[in-house]
Design brief:
With 320 residues, the chain is of the alpha/beta class. The protein is built from seven helices and 18 strands. The strands form five sheets. Strands 1, 2, 5, 6, 7, 8 and 18 form a seven-stranded mixed beta sheet that branches. Helix 2 packs parallel to helix 3 and helix 5 packs parallel to helix 6.
Length: 320
């Protein structure tokens, strides 16, 4: 395809635009930029995605342990240092016209590209119980590493039974006076090595077969939590200064509603083996993809494959 000169001469025209700067998006930026493409990536929050909010990473190859924020910063700096452009802002719409993608941000700015790679990730699932919204930022937090220091030597609660909930419980237990871990079942979905550490930690108290009913406070801050046993329906209360819900995630997909690429059952995006969606030239990588395993390592895999195939698509589809 021959590209219109109006695009070629436009400083806001790119080979590849990447939406999201987590591990998948930044890996895609790295590989696309190394392929001598003109690349930019958008991020509306801190670059690094969920890794920024993870205190310690213990399953990333090459590191016995590594700080999540440090790893995220390294991802970002590596992609930026070789020329990939960072654009701070929120993407609100994607459209395709005459084989060129139009990407609009919340400030009304439109940028153009031959390829778009969506790496928008997931957001925290909410409990939707009394006090959750009222006390957000006042004792309800979704980021242990962000807020743990505020609650040093104070009691806190964690809600959830997956890797994130248990990993953050361990992190908090070394800072806070006590961590109540609340989970609706006896069994956990986390890795066995993490489960073992949690069960052995003297500062973690398990409250199992239980669900939270409300986050209680004095109007200014959290003071406690009311929960219910799912078996005998008995209620209990604990006094805490903060609660950290880690009960899962929802795909960030609001900005591409019009593209009709979401799986109708769960809202994640279906892709082929090259991570291309049903729209030619539009790729999707990382946690927003409809898949079973979501790890830093799998996100990097996605970003690598999508970028390599994006380069191939551009070379075959557009005239030089």
């Amino acid at each position: 395809m021959r590209i219109d000169t109006n695009y070629i001469n436009n400083p806001h025209f790119f080979d590849v635009l990447i939406i999201g700067a987590g591990p998948a998006g930044l890996t895609a930026a790295l590989y696309a930029q190394r392929a001598n493409l003109k690349v930019a990536f958008f991020e509306k929050d801190t670059p690094g995605g969920k890794v920024v909010k993870t205190s310690v990473v213990e399953n990333y190859p090459g590191f016995k342990t590594v700080s999540g924020p440090d790893l995220a910063l390294n991802f970002f700096q590596q992609a930026s240092s070789i020329g990939a452009k960072f654009i701070y802002g929120e993407v609100t719409n994607i459209s395709k016209l005459n084989e060129i993608f139009h990407v609009t941000t919340s400030d009304g700015m439109v940028r153009y590209s031959k390829v778009v790679i969506i790496a928008s990730g997931m957001t925290e699932r909410k409990l939707n119980i009394p006090g959750e919204i009222e006390y957000y930022g006042k004792g309800v937090s979704y980021c242990a590493i962000c807020d743990a220091a505020i609650y040093k030597n104070k009691p806190v609660a964690v809600i959830g039974g997956g890797n994130t909930a248990l990993e953050e419980s361990l992190y908090l237990a070394d800072i806070c006076s006590k961590v109540y871990l609340i989970h609706r079942r006896q069994g956990f979905r986390a890795e066995e090595v993490i489960i073992s550490k949690v069960k052995q930690h003297k500062n973690i108290q398990l409250i199992l077969d239980a669900v939270p009913l409300s986050f209680d406070g004095d109007g200014k801050k959290i003071t406690g939590l009311t929960y219910e046993n799912v078996i005998d329906k008995k209620q209990g209360k604990i006094s805490i200064d903060c609660v950290f819900p880690f009960i899962g995630f929802l795909p960030v997909n609001n900005f591409f509603e019009k593209l009709n690429i979401k799986n109708e059952n769960n809202g994640f995006v279906d892709v082929d083996s090259n991570f291309q969606t049903k729209i030619v030239g539009l790729y999707c990588v990382g946690d927003v993809v409809n898949k079973n395993i979501r790890q830093i390592s799998t996100a990097i895999n996605d970003g690598t494959i999508a970028a390599v195939h994006a380069k191939k698509y551009i070379d075959e589809h557009f005239e030089k």
